[in-house]
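agent: user wants the full assembly modeled, not chains individually. Plan: 1) parse entity lines 2) check alphabet per entity 3) run joint structure prediction 4) return tokens. Steps 1-2 passed, two entities, 981 residues total. Proceeding.
--- entities ---
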Amino acid sequence: MRIVIIGNGISGITAARHLRKSSDHDITVISSESKFFYSRTALMYIYMGHMTLKNTQPYEADFWEKNRIKLIQDHVSEVDFSSKALSFASDRPAMNYDKLVLALGSASNKFGWPGQDLNGVGGLYSLQDLETMDKYSNKLERAVIVGGGLIGIEMAEMFHSRNISVSFLVREKSYWDHVLPQEESEMVNNEILDHNIDLRLETELDKIEDNGQGAVGSITTKEGQKIHCGFVGLTAGVHPNVGFLKESQLEIEKGILVDKTLLTNIQDVYAIGDCAQQRHPNDGRRGIEAIWYTGRMMGELVAHNILNPVNPLDYNPGIWFNSAKFFNIEYQVYGNVPVDLPDHMQSLFWQDDSGKKSVRINFNQKDKSVLGFNLMGIRFRHQICERWIHHGTSVEEVLSHLELAAFDPELYKSYEESLRAKYQKLTGQRISQKSDRRLNRVLEFFKN
Amino acid sequence: MSTTSSQGMESMAPSNPQQFKLSGLQKLGLAVGAFSILLILTGVSGHILLSPNIHFWFILGSASLGVLIYAYAVYSDSDPGIKNNGVWFYQLTNRGAAAWVLGIVLTGFYVLLYWYPETLGLGTGQTGENTGLVAVFDPLSQALKGKPASQWFVYGTLYTLAILIFGGKFLYKYRHNKYQIWRTISVMFFQLAFAFLLPEFLLAMDLPYNDFKNMWPLNYYFFDGWNIKQMMSSGTLGICMLVWGVAMIFIVSPMLTYFYGKRWYCSWVCGCGGLAETAGDPFRHLSDKSIQAWKIERWLVHGVLVFVVVMTLGVLYSFFTNEATNILLSRNFFVIFVSISGTTLLMWMWLDSYRFRELDQKAKWLSTGIGVFLMVVLLVSHFSGFNTLYVADISGPLRKWYGFLIGAAFSGVVGVGFYPLLGNRVWCRFGCPMAAILGIQQKFFSRFRITTNGGQCISCGNCSTYCEMGIDVRAYAQKGQNIVRASCVGCGICAAVCPRGVLKLENGSLDISEKTDQKHIQFVREDEVRVLH
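--- prediction returned ---
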């Protein structure tokens, strides 16, 4: 059987690896972006000089040959689903498949701004985007970034690392405030300002102006303010990269619609990762979740389902988790941490004196069961948080054993007592410490 | 995306963008620091600034000031945090011309130091008075022990200065990280107090030179006849040194390694580690992470270990032949002790197959072959009445070659001289027999491991890139596996540079036998869907 995977990002490559692990099928991965799989999340570190492209590639060049995973660097221009054939942008002959996995990833959003196609306007998604950024960075004095999400702040950090001034246009009242609760969002605002970024909240882009030579010269905001700049970063989100399939029989809404087993409306064709949209999302989850971890999970699952067509498994990504880094502030989230607390939910929030570290624990007001964790500048153990959320452990039990979750390096200051004190202030309930940070305690917890 | 533009992308490494040219303050720091190197060079050629004493303080002052100015220029610009901006862009840290120049200068210095000390000004001939660079260090040497300097005093002083000055820079760079702060203070302290000052004071009191933290086999002459005799003839303190030295090998170090892994030594105490972690820190990313390099590492480092064991057995054999004074110090006892402990170790390896499950069959057979061969040679020689083991005797070729190849060329010339080209832990990774022993203990008998945080790894590669020992940390982290590798020195930088908080250095006894197993289940299993790795 020939399995063809289009896309060599984390979803496609995870699928290929797991297919090879449990089968001897003919596996081919096609990508026009790069010859080898690299970690997309590490793009920023190449630009900042922390790593080379090679450093971001998790597998050595001979890995693919050793594992008989065929790599093709080319652009698929068309898929003929009825004859199960792919044709390429180059003169490469068409290729047949028995099973097809679409792992096409995302493309940066553009909202029809005047000047959005000028030279010196770019997103940050692919290696080619990075190449563009790098090309325009030399002698660049100011860049404007449009869109206050995760990619926007990464881009700000990148330019900052090269001493390029940044104006950061954020439509919302506060950075990423549709995801981060107010306190955390404000911490990030401060972190951005501490890095001398010209942060402009509640500011939207109106148009991008030509410098007279076909490249960016300045932008104007909706309030009519003009900012001179040599580069404009468009980081107002991404959308599934499905353009070339829009006219096919494939059912597409925003992304390629898939059922619980990741199968599309066409037999033997699967879609995974950023480009896939769940027909029936799991409870509390969105149809499209363009994040690293879900891509990896879908890669594993699709491999399993292709190899077990009679007993396919349903996609169930479990309890939500994610992480990011805002300049020097690391961020981790486990479970349910909404911006606006629903009535049944209560939030315990503690922040350290520096304003760079915080812990938020959400719990059910009635039965006290813990619902979510939001960490800034502090590391928590994934498995412990998940276990607590999964079992609906009471917040008081969690607080008394909070040391189990601590994942900061050895010798770091402990904050658990401050959280217990905060809880006492909030509820009057005194909680005493029942665990410590030793690994043995954690292992005991898992053995029970 | 067009395929044409992406063809050249494999080499994508933005090369020295203009923003990464040195700032004025950085240049000033480099210039002031370079002045100290210039003074060392003029010292070598015999040109002294005013007086040896003033010359010495100028070297010390300009080196410290230069490094501190540079560190301030690079790290003060923003909040405490990871400071790796531009590491791959600077010539010095990306094997550029500057790196080659530095590598050649360092290598040249080591060659002069080991084999042509008189060119550095070491006193020879009838007067024996030092000149040149060595003379510059006479005042300090006189102050510490009342004797003129030797080339080793010059080296020891410069070495200690390097650890202290670059240690200061490292502390500033990692000022947000308590683990790094304490670890660095520790290596700075052990170098200054135990490796530099204490031995000098011992010499001042006419006691034997001794670095209490430097144990066999890193200190390969510990079991030399002259060293043992010197210790035994130096009263209670000498006996204490001997007992401590032996206890370090058989009791103290295995226990500490059991509890904390080999990091207690390699990145908290050891002088080689101390220099690598401080002066060598800017080059840590240059270590080779390939599987091939890992293979070479295992052959080389364990080869050196076998080399030093054979040599030491030979040296002790003739020592006991000549110096046997009582039953405990007889050759008879020595040969029987070695045979019994060797056999026990080999039997343990074969019988405890669960603990050694990750040990390759070939490695088992090879170590058994070498062990049995050595014991047979020892027993046959002993009972045939040979007085020495010839090849492995103190005056034999094995010892000479070890001193030249390993003691000088590998640990010094290559180990430090090649920092800017091969990374800062070349010696520790490929050559150090001490690291080899501690590594075996760490792999099979220690509570230490690096744990990974569930499914949070994004495979970015910062951990692997900045692992000075060339461990592909990411390969484990992205699978949610613990990292238990013989070579890991526990520097903690992988955990520091991880942007997602995935790695933690930990010690635990509960799962010590299965800590290397892949405990975390996959997302998908045949019988169920589970959430995590």
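agent: reporting back. The first helix of chain B runs from residue 3 to 7. The longest strand of chain B covers residues 448-452.
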